[in-house]
Amino acid sequence: MDNRINSNSKNHLIIGGVDATELVKQYQTPLYVMDESAIRHKCQMLIKRFKHPQVNTEVIYAAKAFLTLQMAKLINEEGLSMDVVSGGELYTAIKGEFPPSRIYFHGNNKSHEEIEMAIQNHVGTIVCDNGDEVTRLLKHSWDGRLRIMLRINPGIEAHTHEYIKTTTHDSKFGLSIYDPKTMDLIKTIHDNPRLDFVGFHTHIGSQIFESESFMELARTVLSYIQALKIKHGILTKEMNLGGGFGVRYTQEDTPFSLADFFPKLLNLIVEESKRLNVDIPKVLIEPGRSIVAEAGYTLYTISGTKETFGGKRFVFIDGSMADHIRTALYQATYEAVIANDLKRPLSQDYTVTGKACESGDIIIKNIKLPKPLEGDILAVLSTGAYHYSMSSNYNRLLKPAVIFVSGGKSRVVVQRESYDDLLRHDV
Ligand code: LLP
User: Which position among 252, 254, 357, 424 bears the catalytic label?
Assistant: First the structure.
């Protein structure tokens, strides 16, 4: 049973109580559809389960996965905080009336303009990436003390089903905990009366299916907190364990249950803190993908098929890698259904491709589909994260509209682009 696929008596795909074919009639294709209630349920589950009687906790939404004004509003209503990584994300959050005190400003290369924008808007926390950035930050002025976290690289890299503990630290993000200069910088930040050093930020990867990676991360950061206490007498108040929780793109993906995992993680943090004789820090997490990915669908219209001389079968859709880059960029895998006929029997393997002038313009490689007919609606599943946010105008293709659906109702949250939009900045 796939909870992403619901149908009505006509065997049409239903998203948020709305018939996908009706959405297509109303808004055309290609179309990004987000099940708003599914996003809200995810947020509520995170808030509810990421709790512990002895631990102060906070859930931050990593906005890079999907951000619009309405999404900023939704995240605020659900009581999560927000991670932004650029002036553009910050601007969207502010214009979406997201409370600045709950914004974490990330990024490994913040410009003076972005720093000033964060200060002017009273952003709650700046997550510093390196010493140069701290120096750059201190050239700005503000009243009182600025809350600072430092991004550290704990030497754990997690990919899908495994994590690697490395001692080679060549990530462009954060400072290695194995580099003695990192602790010197923490002392400098801590001793500066204009800065309020609250703790550490970490993020070990994305689409992680192995919960032990996060356990190992928590142990590693806590022992660093202990080392900092012993060396400099500095007490760490907060630790952000980042995002990266895996989601289901295809049946092969087996995400672990966050609801079951969080109590174990928080228990481990309590026990480890006691064992290491450090104060139990406030614990933050920062998921993006796991909040929105499975709530998203991209609807396309099938225009036809083509069988090559070599025997490869293509299905052509009216979108492209410009609205779906993850397959080309990461060889990501997806599933799709014929939204106007969920009962049509599977026939053979097809590669779903779009309109872009690139052989790499692949949406799904080799997927078994029912025989596709012209005018069918193809719904690609789990496209809620990093699709709209990574879309482009390659080939001067127009970006699709984004629709929120919930309780049988739909609304536009981002309008479809027009040709005039394309020319807006041309001179
Ligand atoms: N926090 C930090 C500091 C991050 O860098 C990221 C993702 C997250 C949180 C959220 O990670 P999530 O829970 O979404 O996995 N474009 C790629 C993903 C890049 C993620 C970068 N950082 C993709 O489409 O898979």
Answer: 357
